[in-house]
Q: What sequence folds into this?
């Protein structure tokens, strides 16, 4: 065997062992389970809740967002409805409804899995409030799972904004989520956001932790 | 470096490469999504549907089982109900209700994740039919995901009855299921059984395929 090959193979083995050790340890991330909810423009808030209406704060969320006291009923193409869907504030530039795949089946609509904000050609949905209704031609999505973190956390985890990682839930059901996007911002608290389907399917509750692995 | 170490490391590398090639290829398994359903004893069939009643066949399933035309309403401890739950036949030695974790939340009960048949100390549930009702002190479970296969398939996949494997769904959402039990029997058709939560959370539909990996 050539000396070069021996050196190469030895380095490969050492690197593999080191990588394995690093990944076995992983980086712990608390989970936040997102129930169905929606974001509204101020224009839509006023149509649904009355002229000049302002959303009222129920609970603070990360990054200056809040759960409002306001709820709506959403109705899909087959005229099936889900009641008591929470509005998040503050108002945004575009209205967006985030549901689970189970909700999409229940409503009879085809909502795509998307990052928040990316609603082009997503599913149409009707939103009904106490003072009016709006019909969104597009805006209903299934939120793509993702991890929020500060630049400091990103450094500690060895990841960057936009990275795609795998995340392991080492519980009774035992699941690895691939294709998980990292989002880094100073205003973010370390948290992985999954929807109720993902939480129920994988036996995870808010506050439990998962571990970041590199892509598998 | 010792000659022994070089030989050892070289063998480790070759084995690792071979293992990786084998696992990257994997073994394809079609998925069957199980909606909520129940199995009944003949005694319970007669309480729910009338004396001497026999379940009637709607659709054949694997291993001599069938979906019957009969459905029931199930009611949890908080008196919340789910209607139109399908009865599978033929009758069994013990009645058993299989629901998703989402259903458990909806019903307000704590159902454990279990293999079919293992219902000791599982959740209580009421079952209501057109002619009567039974209260199961135990019997409500969330079915643990598993793969059915024939001995021939098991040989091809390199697994044995009772093995625990990981299974990869390489689709848009991208998920690896760990802790998946292999069940081998001559009467089994190759199929991975997951519940509606797992299917919805992971973007999988009946008839799509996943790949068996060794435990990750």
A:
């Amino acid at each position: 065997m050539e000396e070069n090959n021996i050196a190469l193979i030895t380095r490969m083995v050492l690197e593999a062992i080191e990588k394995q050790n690093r990944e076995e340890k992983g980086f712990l991330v608390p989970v936040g389970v997102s129930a169905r909810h929606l974001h509204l423009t101020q224009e839509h808030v006023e149509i649904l809740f009355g002229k000049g209406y302002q959303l009222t704060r129920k609970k603070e969320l990360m990054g200056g967002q809040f759960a409002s006291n306001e709820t709506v009923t959403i109705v899909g193409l087959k005229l099936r409805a889900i009641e008591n869907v929470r509005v998040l504030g503050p108002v945004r530039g575009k209205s967006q409804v985030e549901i689970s795949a189970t909700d999409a089946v229940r409503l009879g609509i085809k909502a795509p899995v998307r990052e928040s904000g990316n609603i082009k050609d997503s599913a149409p949905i009707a939103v009904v409030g106490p003072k009016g209704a709006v019909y969104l031609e597009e805006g209903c999505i299934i939120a793509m799972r993702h991890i929020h973190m500060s630049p400091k956390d990103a450094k500690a985890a060895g990841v960057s904004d936009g990275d795609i990682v795998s995340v392991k839930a080492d519980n009774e059901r035992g699941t690895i989520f691939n294709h998980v996007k990292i989002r880094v911002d100073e205003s973010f608290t370390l948290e992985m956001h999954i929807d109720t389907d993902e939480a129920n399917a994988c036996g995870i509750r808010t506050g439990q932790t998962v571990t970041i692995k590199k892509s598998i």
Helices of chain A lie at 3-25, 42-49, 101-107, 151-157, 196-202. The CA atoms of residues 30 and 208 of chain A lie 6 Å apart.
